[in-house]
Amino acid sequence: MAHVNEARLVDEAARLLVEHGPAGLSLRKVAAAAGVSTMPVYTLFGDKEGLLAAMHREGFRRLGAALAAVPATAEPLADLIELGLAYRRAALSSPHLYGLMFGRTVPQFQPSGADREAADATYQPLVDAVARCQAAGVFGGGDPRRVALHLWAVSHGMVNLELNGQLPELGSAEDLYLEALGYAGLPFLAVG
Q1: What's residue 101's pLDDT?
Q2: In the CATH hierarchy, which top-level class contains the domain 3-188?
Q3: Least-confidence region, from 44-53, 93-102, 123-132
Q4: Sign of CA dihedral 46, 44, 111, 34
Q5: How many Cα atoms sit within 13 Å of 93 on the Cβ side?
Q6: What are φ and ψ of residue 139, in 5° steps?
Q7: 89 or 8: whose pLDDT is higher?
Q8: So what's the pLDDT on residue 34?
Q9: Under 8 Å between Cβ of 120 and 126
Q10: CA of 161: how far to CAs of 53, 92, 133, in Å?
Q11: What is the mean pLDDT of residues 15-31?
Q12: Beta bridge partners of 139
């Protein structure tokens, strides 16, 4: 089965998970939703845990690809903002997977150690971008991992509010997101 078909199955599974909850997700239902026989679905995923693991991996693969597509330029602060925008775009383009990646959509699902490491690797571009801002004198010193955690928390919170339809009507979602990122970065700007 081609990778494109696997991605489609993952998307169908994520949609079913959001619409029907964990109890409404089965390999048979995914096959039916995708219009394929059950055999290739069982061959690809094995069981429901295998399907959830594939969904988790695919969500982080997409996020990692979106972040990797942001080029490093001579403007580290602009690059950091672009990473934030790429994070938001990735979440909005795969909202059904985002809940599994960062939420407790399926409380009993536990990603494997290798899957957690792959997920954690998508955080490193943010840490690297913060370190570049520090090296360029845009941000003050300190542990770039702590600064990155603060920025990610704001970004993640804004994305969650947007995905859940909970943003107040104070402007466009993208404008509110950019404003929040700006406010989040203020404490770290180098003084002088």
Answers
A1: 85
A2: mainly alpha
A3: 93-102
A4: negative
A5: 14
A6: -105, 150
A7: 89
A8: 85
A9: no
A10: 25, 12, 27
A11: 87
A12: 189
